[in-house]
Automatic annotation (TrEMBL):
<dbReference type="InterPro" id="IPR042045">
    <property type="entry name" value="EXOC6/Sec15_C_dom1"/>
</dbReference>
<dbReference type="GO" id="GO:0005886">
    <property type="term" value="C:plasma membrane"/>
</dbReference>
<protein>
    <recommendedName>
        <fullName>Exocyst complex component</fullName>
    </recommendedName>
</protein>
<keyword id="KW-0813">Transport</keyword>
<dbReference type="InterPro" id="IPR007225">
    <property type="entry name" value="EXOC6/Sec15"/>
</dbReference>
<comment type="function">
    <text>Component of the exocyst complex involved in the docking of exocytic vesicles with fusion sites on the plasma membrane.</text>
</comment>
<dbReference type="InterPro" id="IPR042044">
    <property type="entry name" value="EXOC6PINT-1/Sec15/Tip20_C_dom2"/>
</dbReference>
<dbReference type="Pfam" id="PF20651">
    <property type="entry name" value="EXOC6_Sec15_N"/>
</dbReference>
<dbReference type="GO" id="GO:0000145">
    <property type="term" value="C:exocyst"/>
</dbReference>
<dbReference type="GO" id="GO:0090522">
    <property type="term" value="P:vesicle tethering involved in exocytosis"/>
</dbReference>
<feature type="domain" description="Exocyst complex component EXOC6/Sec15 N-terminal">
    <location>
        <begin position="42"/>
        <end position="211"/>
    </location>
</feature>
<dbReference type="GO" id="GO:0006893">
    <property type="term" value="P:Golgi to plasma membrane transport"/>
</dbReference>
<dbReference type="Pfam" id="PF04091">
    <property type="entry name" value="Sec15_C"/>
</dbReference>
<dbReference type="InterPro" id="IPR046361">
    <property type="entry name" value="EXOC6/Sec15_C"/>
</dbReference>
<comment type="similarity">
    <text>Belongs to the SEC15 family.</text>
</comment>
<dbReference type="GO" id="GO:0006886">
    <property type="term" value="P:intracellular protein transport"/>
</dbReference>
<keyword id="KW-0268">Exocytosis</keyword>
Length: 797
């Protein structure tokens, strides 16, 4: 290194000397013509000086040089010996070191191998955990432990791969991880699809289980409440109406027994459904950072399933099983959603479930409203109501609002009442009225008497004192109607139960339903019965008697409703039973029908009249048809003794007035052109029989000759013609005290003209006799005066 640095230093020095020489030569050759020669001379002189100095120096050092050579020659011999020794030593060392070299090379090679092995071990220690983790990843994938596999991938990427990233196998693993992730996403999504399909198929089973549990819990609560009521000793008996334990309590007992039997088999939604695919898929997508995609897919698919679940079968309204299957599927759907809501974070939110429920609730209400309108069987409507209540209670237990369902139940309750009314209309018309014989109930012994009393609240001390056999005043239909009204109340009560309403509200609903039964159904059936052609006067009389007793029984029905709803007697009811007006209207209709049928019967008898209007002398006795009519009226009015007094009196007065009117119309018939005085006398005999019948008081309660006044128009008219007292009639006409005040001039004129025509025909050959001529003139004179009176009346009018 020193030589090299010295050499590097002399190079610039030589260049400097050469530059000086070059400048000197240039000055020698360029400046003076003889300068070269002079320069050469000086140079030679300088060389000679230097040679002399060298010679002096050599002479001065010559002895030292010789001494040094002499010493070197002496050393030469020792050097050769040393050389031989060194060579020999070297040879010996070489021979001895050959084996060492061999061993040294072996040692070096071993050390290299050891170093390589150490390096390999170190690298393997880095790679083996990676390979083990990757092998573990493969095992997790094979075992379908995808969430663990993703966690393993995260460890590989974050911890292990950075240590061995320089190796090719690591790069292959790194490139393979995205594919594995996609495989896991596809597999987990496939599992989720299988899960969604599974819960769609098994949602009805889930819903059925949830509804059974809610029903058992409700039955248990009701049983506890009833036991508490028993402890307070509420009296459930009022008058003749005892609430049988059998109706609701037996159902409760049976349900409790079934619950005890199935108590060990209570299943939860976790027992019925394996939710691990959802958890797994959610965790996988969360780890992959794609949780939003999974949530959107899950919610979208569940909304599609919700629409399918909410779509009913077209024949759902035909059987209760159709409704039950519809409800269980919906309950199963929302039970699953509620479970997902509470066991996952963010997959299903309360806002999402509320939105889904509100959409479903609107659809459910629309479906139930449409399909329930097709139900005509009250039992099916009642079962539908029970299903809706269980459905609502079940979902309410999971936190879903169900007030709109109970509002819908009030609509269905109205429809239920309508179906009940139709059913009971058939019961009244077909089973009761058609089977009734419309005669008082005969009682032979005390057992039969108590049997009737147990069915109908009848109290009559006089009847109790009478010996057997005896008769109740009403017919068999009365206790049957009373029993059926109570059955209707029971049926209506069944729907009102479990509606989460107070006893007062239920009591009010029962009263309104019963009012509809009385005012619409029973009233309509009674009116239809009354108007049936085959219902005769005897049946109508019995119907009036029946309605009277039914009207009296209405207060017992009110007490019955109060009793079954556990409302205190002091509670003021806003709704009262309208049975009084119902039975009064029916009774009035029956009375009117009695009047109509009685008049029709009278018309039938009157049509049998066969007068010889041209007879010269009367038969001396009343006409046969009239005597038959009077005998019929006497028998009918005897039946009327069971009717209220005013009804019988009105019927009797109406019959007499109608008979009087019919007889008057017979005289004044336009088709009857001529009437002889003999026919008038015969007609007078018939009217006398009518007056005798009226005076015989066929119905008690008439004052004086009130009933005879029904024939006063006929009597005065016939007296006028029988006595031929025209002068008095014409003189007193218009006077309040006139003897013939009830005789209308027009009526008298019509009858007189018929008699005049008969007189002309009979006296055509006796017109020259003076008495006949005078009588004919008198008739003509009276006719003129009557016409003037008639004309005066028309002008005055």
């Amino acid at each position: 290194m020193a030589e090299s640095s010295e050499g590097l230093g002399t190079v610039p020095e030589h260049e400097r000397i050469l530059q000086e020489i070059e400048s000197t030569d240039r000055s020698v050759y360029d400046d003076q013509p003889n300068a070269h020669k002079k320069f050469m001379e000086k140079l030679d002189a300088c060389i000679r000086n230097h040679d002399k100095e060298i010679e002096k120096m050599c002479n001065f050092h010559h002895q030292g040089f010789v001494d040094a050579i002499t010493e070197l020659l002496k050393v030469r011999t020792d050097a050769e010996k040393l050389k031989v020794q060194v060579t020999d030593t070297n040879r010996r060392f070489q021979d001895a070191g050959k084996e060492v070299i061999v061993h040294t090379e072996d040692i070096i090679r071993c050390r290299i191998q050891q170093r390589n092995i150490t390096t390999v071990v170190e690298k393997l220690q880095l790679c083996l955990p990676v390979l083990e983790m990757y092998s573990k990843l493969k095992e997790q994938m094979s075992a379908k432990r995808y969430y663990s596999a993703l966690k393993t991938m995260e460890q590989l990427e974050n911890v292990y791969f950075p240590r061995v990233s320089q190796y090719r196998f690591c790069q292959l693993m790194i490139e393979n991880l995205p594919k594995l992730r996609e495989d896991i996403k596809e597999i987990s999504m496939s599992d989720l699809k299988d899960f969604l399909e599974s819960i769609r198929k098994h949602s009805d089973k889930i819903g059925e289980t949830a509804m059974k549990q809610a029903q058992h819990q409700k039955i248990f609560s009701i049983s506890l409440q009833k036991q508490n009521n028993v402890k307070f000793g509420k009296n459930r008996c009022i008058n003749h109406d005892r609430i049988p334990e059998g109706r609701n309590d037996i159902v409760l007992k049976q349900a409790l027994e079934e619950e005890d039997e199935n108590e060990e088999e209570v299943l939860t939604v976790q027992d019925l459904v394996d939710f691990s695919p959802v958890y797994r898929c959610l965790h996988i997508y969360s780890v992959l950072g794609d949780e939003e995609t999974f949530e959107n897919y899950y919610r979208k698919q569940r909304k599609k399933q919700a629409r399918l679940v909410l779509q009913p079968q077209s024949s759902m309204h035909e059987t209760v099983d159709g409704y039950r299957r519809y409800f269980t599927q919906i309950v199963g759907f929302f039970v699953v959603e509620d479970h997902i809501l509470h066991v996952t974070q963010g997959l299903v939110t309360r806002a999402y479930t509320d939105e889904l429920w509100n959409m479903a609730l609107s659809k459910i209400i629309a479906v139930l409203r449409a399909h329930s309108s097709y139900c005509t069987d009250p039992d099916l409507v009642l079962e539908l109501k029970n299903l809706i209540v269980i459905f609502a209670d079940t979902l309410q237990g999971y936190g879903f609002p169900v007030n709109r369902l109970f509002d819908l139940l009030f609509e269905i309750r109205d429809q239920y009442n309508e179906t009940l009314l139709k059913k009971w209309a058939g019961v009244f018309s077909r089973d009761i009225f058609e089977e009734d014989n419309y005669s008082p109930i005969p009682i032979i012994n005390e057992e039969e008497y108590k049997s009737v009393i147990s069915k109908f609240p009848f109290q009559d001390p006089d009847l109790e004192k009478q010996p057997f056999p005896k008769k109740f005043p009403m017919s068999q239909s009365v206790p049957h109607i009373y029993i059926q009204v109570k059955e209707f109340i029971y049926a209506s009560l069944k729907f009102s139960e479990s509606l989460h309403r107070s006893s007062t509200e239920i009591d009010d609903m029962l009263r309104k339903s019963t009012n509809l039964l009385l005012t619409r159904t029973l009233s309509s059936c009674l009116l239809n019965l009354i108007r049936k052609p085959h219902i005769g006067l005897t049946e109508l009389v019995q119907i009036i008697i029946n309605t009277t007793h039914l009207e009296q029984a209405c207060k017992y029905l009110e007490d019955f409703i109060t009793n079954i709803t556990n409302i205190s007697q002091e509670t003021v009811h806003t709704t009262r039973l309208y049975g009084l007006s119902t039975f009064k209207d029916a009774r009035h209709a029956a009375e009117g029908e009695i009047y109509t049928k009685l008049n029709q019967k009278i018309d039938e008898f009157v049509q049998l009249a066969d007068y010889d209007w041209t007879m010269s002398e009367p038969d001396g006795r009343a006409s046969g048809y009239l005597m038959d009519l009077i005998n019929f009226l006497r028998s009918i009015f005897q039946v009327f003794t069971h009717l209220p007094g005013k009804v019988a009196q009105t019927a009797c007065m109406s019959a007499c007035q109608h008979l009087s009117t019919s007889l008057m119309q017979m005289l004044l018939d336009n088709e009857l052109k001529q009437i002889s005085m003999g026919a008038v006398q015969q007609f007078n005999l018939d009217v006398i029989q009518c007056e005798l019948f009226a005076s015989s008081e066929p119905v008690p309660g008439f004052q004086g000759d009130t009933l005879q006044l029904a024939f006063i128009d006929l009597r005065q008219l016939l007296d006028l013609f029988m006595v031929w007292d025209w002068s008095t009639y014409l003189a007193d006409y218009g006077q309040p005290a006139s003897k013939y005040l009830r005789v209308n001039p027009n009526t008298a004129l019509t009858l007189l003209e018929k008699i005049k025509d008969t007189s002309k025909k009979n006296n055509i050959f006796a017109q020259f006799r003076k008495n006949d001529r005078d009588k004919q003139k008198l008739i003509e004179t009276v006719v003129k005066q009557l016409r003037s009176l008639v004309n005066g009346m028309s002008q005055h009018t």
